[in-house]
Amino acid sequence: MSLVNNMLLGRHSNIFDAFRGFPSEDSGADDVHMDWKETPEAHVFKADLPGVRKGDVKVEVEDGRVLSISGERSGDPIDDKERCEWHCSERSRGRFYRRFRLPEDAKADEMKASMENGVLTLIVPKRRMKKPEVSSVEITGGASKKSGKAKDVVCCSFWPL
């Protein structure tokens, strides 16, 4: 069945679903599905990279705070040279990348990486952050002259500059 027929018959939840799996210049960032959890000791990242060898993955930290995961998935190329008709092509192929900023408490220089069964695991230990110093401020003033009661205070979320 052709691509157009599939779209007309409503077999896709979104009109662009029919084009999933076809390479494009801007694809890649959304092809790395990740989990990020924080424990008391570390930030733990897990990225699904099925069919990717660890030698085809690069993990880098830029400026001590930006984590970058990149690489390339190989697979059957979609081309017109073969004498075949593609009925479905959903597996990701080609280059992939994912970048995001690490939190302030991340010890990026102590990061550990491992890969098993197509899952890349990154463990980034946390440093103890100094708690901000809090000091009390004395509030002065008294009751209003008219009623002898304290004035109502109005709090605003907007302060003009």
Automatic annotation (TrEMBL):
One Pfam family this sequence matches: HSP20
Family membership noted in the UniProt record: Belongs to the small heat shock protein (HSP20) family.
Family matches, as InterPro entries: A-crystallin/Hsp20_dom (IPR002068), HSP20-like_chaperone (IPR008978), Small_HSP (IPR031107)
This protein's record includes keyword Membrane: no
Keyword annotations: Stress response
Domain SHSP: 23-142
Domain of life: Eukaryota
Signal peptide: none
Name of the molecule in the record: SHSP domain-containing protein
PANTHER family reported in the protein's UniProt record: HEAT-SHOCK PROTEIN 20 FAMILY MEMBER (PTHR11527)
